[in-house]
Amino acid sequence: MICDKIRTLRDTCGLSQSALAKKIGVTRSAVNAWEMGLSIPTAQYIVAMAQLFHISTDYLLGLQNSQAIYLDGLTEQEKQLLYAMYGYFTERDTAP
């Protein structure tokens, strides 16, 4: 459910409800309501969170099971680090 994904993504990024609210331009109580499942964010805020967390809106909405990470806005050095980490973990997982 979207409420669980919002909470998990926010926690993973080390953001408080207030910090997330400030970054996307809503109140803390709106974020709390989304996380409690009392309301659902509008399309505008779904897009804002997807951009903030570098994920797809489909993942946030539960239409896609795997989490894609978008590299837009990252420096070339940050991208290379992510590629290296991905290579390390995929090689480790496929090693006999």
TrEMBL record:
The keyword Iron does not apply. Residues 6-60 form the HTH cro/C1-type domain. Keywords: DNA-binding. Pfam families: HTH_3 (PF01381). One of its GO terms (molecular function) is DNA binding. InterPro entries: Cro/C1-type_HTH, Lambda_DNA-bd_dom_sf. PANTHER family: HTH-TYPE TRANSCRIPTIONAL REGULATOR XRE, TRACRIPTIONAL REGULATORY PROTEIN-RELATED-RELATED. This is XRE family transcriptional regulator.
